[in-house]
From TrEMBL:
<feature type="compositionally biased region" description="Basic and acidic residues">
    <location>
        <begin position="10"/>
        <end position="20"/>
    </location>
</feature>
<feature type="region of interest" description="Disordered">
    <location>
        <begin position="1"/>
        <end position="20"/>
    </location>
</feature>
<dbReference type="InterPro" id="IPR003886">
    <property type="entry name" value="NIDO_dom"/>
</dbReference>
<protein>
    <submittedName>
        <fullName>TECTA protein</fullName>
    </submittedName>
</protein>
<dbReference type="GO" id="GO:0007160">
    <property type="term" value="P:cell-matrix adhesion"/>
</dbReference>
<dbReference type="Pfam" id="PF06119">
    <property type="entry name" value="NIDO"/>
</dbReference>
<dbReference type="InterPro" id="IPR051495">
    <property type="entry name" value="Epithelial_Barrier/Signaling"/>
</dbReference>
<feature type="domain" description="NIDO">
    <location>
        <begin position="75"/>
        <end position="227"/>
    </location>
</feature>
Length: 243
């Protein structure tokens, strides 16, 4: 599977069943550096956001860069409602088997910088519904923060994306499409540095399971302490989806 192992059997915590909810403050066992700043605390927000220092309850996404100074990564920022369906899991881990898999993957994508992970935060949105849904549609995606204490990476995995928009963001309650679609990217918090994954806040974002910057459909990987993509050619629009 594209996804790293997750769920209660992996020792994951789960977010409360609450619309626009968030985890408690997660104190990181290894501080995480994002765009040159080091953070001790993150929040896993139900609406597809991992934020540093403060939770994010906003459900309709705004394009980056944000002007309000909030540093966060948006694996899939949209109006999730886990009361209607799905679960949001997270754990910090030093499991050697998982870290070996992560290390091999990142070293393959960034071969000039051999990487041996010593820690990871694995966050998974498992078949989550959208606000106002009258369907059974769910999205499954994952974000992994990882480091060797020198380099810091974020992996985004997209396994099954069936909707883009909640009803309160002008989406269709039956299809989960239209309105203001999900946003995917990175906001440094300094209103200057940011990255938007192609297709964000357009209907094309539903195709993110077929896109990549590391030639693995559905996976995007970035070094985020000193923000870098891989050397792969930038995504190209091809038959209405990014490859």
């Amino acid at each position: 599977s594209l996804l790293y192992p997750y769920g209660p059997h992996q020792g994951d915590e789960s977010n409360p069943k609450h619309d626009d909810g968030t985890s408690e403050a997660i104190v990181l066992s290894i501080p995480f550096t994002f765009y040159g700043k080091t953070y001790q605390t993150v929040f896993v927000n139900n609406n597809g956001v991992i934020s540093f220092d403060k939770p994010v309850r906003q459900y309709t996404p705004d394009p980056f860069p944000l002007v309000d100074g909030r540093p966060f990564v948006a694996p899939y920022w949209a109006d999730v409602d886990n009361v209607l369906g799905g679960d949001i899991f997270y754990r910090q881990t030093t499991d050697p088997v998982l870290l070996e898999d992560i290390s091999q993957d990142i070293t393959q994508y960034f071969p000039k910088n051999p990487f041996t992970a010593t820690w990871a935060l694995v966050v998974t949105w498992d078949h989550v519904a959208y606000y106002g849904s009258t369907s059974e549609k769910g999205n499954t995606f994952q974000s992994v923060l990882t480091t060797d204490s020198k380099m810091f990476y974020i992996i985004l995995n997209y396994w099954d994306i069936q909707w883009t928009t909640g009803a309160a963001s002008d989406g269709d309650a039956e299809t989960g499409l239209g309105g203001t679609p999900a946003h995917v990217g990175f906001n440094s918090g300094d209103d200057t540095h940011f990255y938007n994954i192609p297709g964000s806040q357009t209907d094309a974002i539903i195709n993110i399971t077929t896109t990549s910057n590391v030639k693995v459909p559905g996976r995007w990987v970035f070094r985020v302490d000193d923000f870098q993509m891989t050397g792969v050619d930038p995504p190209q629009l091809n038959n209405d989806c990014w490859l």
